[in-house]
Amino acid sequence: MSVAEKFRELYGYGPEGVWAAPGRVNLIGEYTDFNDGFVMPLALPHTAVAAVARRTDGVLRVHSADTGEGVVELAVDALEPRSGTGWAAYPAGVVWALRDAGHPVTGADLHLASTVPTGAGLSSSAALEVVTALAVSELYGLGLPPEALARLAQRAENAFVGVPCGIMDQMASAHCTEGHVLHLDTRDLGRRQVPFDLAAHGLRLLVVDTLVKHTLGEGAYAERRAGCEAGARALGVRTLRDVEYGQLDDALRTLADLPAGAGAGAGGSGPAAEQVVRYVRHVVTENHRVERTVALLDAADVRGTGPVLTEGHASLRDDLRVSCPELDLVVSAAHAAGALGARMTGGGFGGSAIVLVETADEDTVTKAVLDAFAVEGRTTPRVFPAAPSAGARRLR
Ligand code: ADP
Ligand code: MG
Q1: What is the DSSP letter of 260?
Q2: Centre of ligand 1 from the C-alpha of residue 118, in Å
């Protein structure tokens, strides 16, 4: 059944339109977006698709084909940040953010079906937010550009759902274009679509979803974020973005020489100097890796990006320490089987890795990864190719 047919079955009338917004993988630039740094995501062919119609009576009804729950009904003027309405907090948060920004949104009926794997580090949440924001913006004639949709979606996730994410995921879902990676400066949202025509180069980018999520990761994002902020403070810069790659050695010396506790927050309970040194090294080298990747792609040297990806993985594993045995196993097995490069992508502690391979080696590398998991008795990962796909759009 199509989303429009399901909408009709649920609500007793037809939708005004159908919209789609994709999940994403980040090629390179991890844990940089809360440091005003650079990222390079591409949109997946997997999308959240929403059939939507306006309402004038202040009621918001949402339904997902993917949860097994019934229709959730909310009153738009009673939406409260962090009031915990389960998955419905994502679309409700977008309506709340739109209304909070002064847009006269008087309700909606929405039915959603998504092919973006959830909780796999592929941004099913941003896809859901952005598709809602785009549909409501178009239906209400708000004419919001993709950048504004992304900011509203991020606000919904930060303030309403209560997840402290950066802007990358929403910008990727709203802005990516087919056949390109999005080179994004998260400081001012300056951006460029960089051609990433894998097929023309005889290459494939594989996504390996490990299907695991370690609880260890739960406090890690906030802790890394605090550590990066402490590092910036200790170095006297606004954010780590302001530390040039050429200044890295000096910066690390400064941090290492600080008296114990100097890198910590006001309460003295922040991360240790040794951790701050590692976090700063990751962020500064990772920003540099994004710039190196852009230069390689501009020179049409797509293969040359492989080693940069692998370096990025080592930095996330050893300096930021957000990898896990499953992600490390993908990278080592892929490498041993002849992959050009591989790294974890997203927040880590499970979720997904990406692997750059020659098209001719795709089957060998995939088999090697699956075999490595089987040998260790681990859950069989899901592997699929990530063709750089289109951003959010109206389908009908
Ligand atoms: P990721 O964005 O990496 O997939 P998150 O934890 O940020 O992981 O977001 C996943 C959450 O988004 C789910 O737990 C659910 O609340 C919501 N979500 C995503 N896709 C759907 C969907 N198709 N239906 C209902 N809720 C969804
Ligand atoms: Mg998410």
Answers
A1: T
A2: 5
Give 194-233 pLDDT, tens digit per residue.
999 999 999 999 999 999 999 888 889 999 999 999 999 9
- CA 241/CA 186 separation, integer angstroms: 10
Return the CATH number of 3-195+390-394, one of 3.30.230.10, 3.40.50.1820, 3.40.309.10, 3.40.47.10.
3.30.230.10
- Please list the alpha-helical segments (H only) found in the chain: 3-11, 89-100, 124-139, 146-155, 168-175, 220-235, 248-257, 273-298, 305-315, 325-336, 362-375
Phi-psi map region of 205: left, alpha, beta (phi>0 left; psi -120 to 50 alpha): beta
User: What are residue 111's phi and psi, to 5 degrees?
Assistant: -125, 135
pLDDT for 82-101, tens place per residue? 998 899 999 999 999 999 99
pTM over 0.90: yes
| Cα 2 to middle of ligand 2, angstroms | 25
141, exposed or middle or buried, with CB in 10 Å at 0-12, 13-18, 19+? exposed
Our answer on whether the CB atom of 221 is closer than 6 Å to any ligand 1 atom is no
User: What six digits make up the tokens of 47?
Assistant: 């999308």
Q: What is the DSSP letter of 389?
A: B
How many Cβ atoms from other residues are within 10 Å of residue 121's Cβ?
27
